[in-house]
């Protein structure tokens, strides 16, 4: 009898609240302030997709042979017309990938599919961004992950 062993592709891990709070705080202090100043408004801090749409994308990616997902950091054009409130803000693009062994090692290659418009990357975007959509007018939840006081120098302090 021949046994086929499938190698796990797992690279991530579950993390605790302290880890999440730390990496979010680091991001805010080391990147977010500068990004916001550059675009002239608060940059996005998070984005949201429903589990339903993520599952739908994962199922579609699997149909095309994906064994993983890659998240690309991106930014909308400064004059993005489809959703002007997103203009200039950062986002994530989720892309289906397939692991390949190359002469240079293992690579997670983006998947392209044939469409009526030619070969197109298998990708998903347009998440609900915060800002601008963060439940404006709500009280700040002191238990919220990543609440940080950022010193903007002469521009004062901001709680994000």
Description:
- With 160 residues, the chain is α+β, with helices and mostly antiparallel strands.
- The protein has a domain of 90 residues.
- Helices cover 22% and strands 31% of the residues.
- Strands 2, 3, 4 and 7 form a four-stranded antiparallel β-sheet that branches. Strands 1-8 form a two-stranded antiparallel sheet. Strands 5-6 form a two-stranded antiparallel ribbon.
- The longest helix is centred in the N-terminal third of the chain and has 23 residues.
- It is globular.
- The relative contact order is 0.18.
Characterize the quaternary organization of these chains: single chain
Q: Briefly note the structural class of the backbone.
A: alpha+beta
Number of strands: 10
- Helix-strand topology string: HEHEEEEEEEEE
Q: Flag low-confidence runs.
A: none
Q: Which percent range describes the beta-strand content?
A: 25-35%
- Mean pLDDT across the residues is 87
Helix amount: 10-25%
Helical region count?
2
Radius of gyration, CA atoms, in whole angstroms: 19 Å
End-to-end separation: 59 Å
Shape: globular
Biggest beta sheet summary: 4 strands, antiparallel
